[in-house]
Amino acid sequence: MSLAAFSRMIQMLKGSPVAVVGGTILVTGSLLFTYRKVYRPFVVRREREQAEAIADYIFQMEQSKEQRQKMEGGDNLI
After folding, report:
1. pTM score
2. What is the pLDDT of residues 21-46, one digit of tens each?
3. Which of 8, 19, 45, 46 could form a disulfide with 13 if both were Cys (CB 3.0 to 4.6 A apart)?
4. Which regions span the lipid bilayer (predicted)?
């Protein structure tokens, strides 16, 4: 398709309500696809890594607390 034919086609569709609705649907679908397939997996992965890091930190703090209590001779661990 030549550039002139493409330009004429755009001019014809420019005022068409069907073309505007179709373009809107296309843009909305593209945004949803990009969000679901690209952005959301990245965010979920990052949140999971942060949650695991926090859980590891809490576990290490509890372990060190238990170790200190054992060294001090305490009978109650929690």
Report:
1. 0.55
2. 888 898 899 999 999 999 999 999 99
3. 19
4. 16-35
